[in-house]
Write a structure and sequence with these properties.
The chain is α+β, with helices and mostly antiparallel strands. It has one domain. The protein has 2 helices and 3 strands.
């Protein structure tokens, strides 16, 4: 949580010990680590996964953190 009340976060997935795909909350887009992850990035963006990930990082996750750390 930032002092102005805004939230900063990220989501990153790996496979076989290497980076695979990450989510840039500022741009609300997935970033593929390589050409293999590009297939997943396209599919997830078509399926609306980016919107769900944005909602999780901006709302659900902070609410849970506030609950458990006593904010």
């Amino acid at each position: 949580f930032l002092s102005d009340g805004s939230v900063h976060g990220f989501s990153r997935r790996g496979y076989d010990g290497r980076d695979f795909i990450s989510f840039d909350l500022g741009f609300e887009k997935f970033v593929a680590a390589d050409s293999a992850a590009e297939i997943t990035r396209r599919r997830w963006e078509q399926e609306g996964v980016a919107e769900a990930r944005t909602n999780y990082l901006k709302h659900e996750c902070p609410e849970g953190l506030r609950k458990y750390v006593g904010y």
